[in-house]
Each structure stands twice: as structure tokens, then as C-alpha cells.
Amino acid sequence: MNATNELNFEEMMRIKLEVLRREHRDLDQAIHALELSGRPDQLTLRRLKKQKLALKEKVVKLEDDIIPDIIA
Length: 72
What we know:
mainly alpha, single chain
């Protein structure tokens, strides 16, 4: 029974990871579109880049939590 709970927890973590990756891609596209516009709002651009970086950090941490360290 414990293994089932762990599997469900791991599945939830993987789903959360995929959601964060999609949000990161969406922000990347928004930043790119804003940069291509004539004169992008620098404050908005800076905020979006900050959000993107925060999402990337969450993705990396979650990946580290999901993928166990293997000592060779």
C-alpha cells in the first residue's frame, strides 16, 4: 500500500513539473513576442523575465526531487 502512495505522489510531482515547464515556455514566448514589438515596455519585460527565472528554478528543484541521486 505504501508503494502505491509513493507512486501517486511521484505522478503528482511529474504532472506539476510538466505544468511548470509549460508555464516557462509560455513566458518565453510572451517575452519573445514583446521583444519583437516595436518598443517593448522594459518594466513588463523585466517582470516577465524574473517570473521566467523563478519558474526555471522551481523546475530544476522539482527535477532534483524527482530524480534520485545515484552514487556510482
